[in-house]
Amino acid sequence: MNLTAIRAYFPGRDAEISRLEQLADADRPPVVTVLGKFNHGKSSLLNELIGESVFAVSDARQTTQLDALEQDGVRWLDAPGLDADVMSEDDRLALSGTWEVADIRLFVHSVREGELDGSEQALVTDLAADATHSGRAALVVLTQIDQVDEATLANVERIVRDQVGALEVFPVSATRYKRGREDGKHLMIEKSGMRALKSRITQVAAHVHAARAGELLTCCNVLRGHLVIADAALRDRLAMLKLDRNQMIAEFKREFWRLEADVYKKFSEV
């Protein structure tokens, strides 16, 4: 597949072509990208999902690249925290990790912040639409549930479920899970909600390669549709150019014949 030629033909569709490039790599492991706003518990969640303290956890914004780890046949990405500056380099990388690289997207939102704000809801809406279109999974993870009371948690969860529509929602506490795992407290592990999330990720990851095949077909069909439209536009342009040419030739002939008649008349009068 000549992606360089495709890029040259579709200069405004870099994200789609970059995704096509990822899909063309049949040996690439399933990729899980964790995304969300800064300080919503993304890195802590990732560390507990993989069982290692690999990703930096800090109150300062540190992740400015797509931090990655491959473990047990799955590649995990910690995307830079999203914020309002969509032109920044770290937001560009977060978007790349979300739309071009990821097979499974975990959208993280801390229940301490209440409902999703406008930018989060817009992103979740886009993720849901893409999940329907491409077949890629998008899961909503409500983090830090140990930091609010049960009534607040129930209210926030209800509102967020209304906001995200058909997307699956998983309330979790990475802190509870870590303590339960380290201290052997099974009830704390169960209350963390992490087992349900890990199980769902495992289920989805097992079907990634089949999902990619369908997504690859969809991508190719979309690009083929764009080619058909571009071809039709070029044909219309060519037809217009031919019409203009024929009109110019006809006008030239009429003018030539008029001049020829004038010259013939003048010579006849001599």
Automatic annotation (TrEMBL):
Domain of life: Bacteria
GO terms of molecular function: GTP binding
Pfam families, alphabetized: MMR_HSR1
Gene Ontology process terms (BP): tRNA methylation; tRNA wobble uridine modification
One Gene Ontology cellular component annotation held by this UniProt entry: cytoplasm
Residue span(s) of domain G: 32-119
InterPro entries associated with the record: GTP-bd, P-loop_NTPase, Small_GTP-bd
Gene3D superfamilies the record matches: P-loop containing nucleotide triphosphate hydrolases
Ranges in a coiled coil: none
Protein name per UniProt: G domain-containing protein
Provenance organism: Burkholderia vietnamiensis (strain G4 / LMG 22486)
Lineage: Bacteria, Pseudomonadati, Pseudomonadota, Betaproteobacteria, Burkholderiales
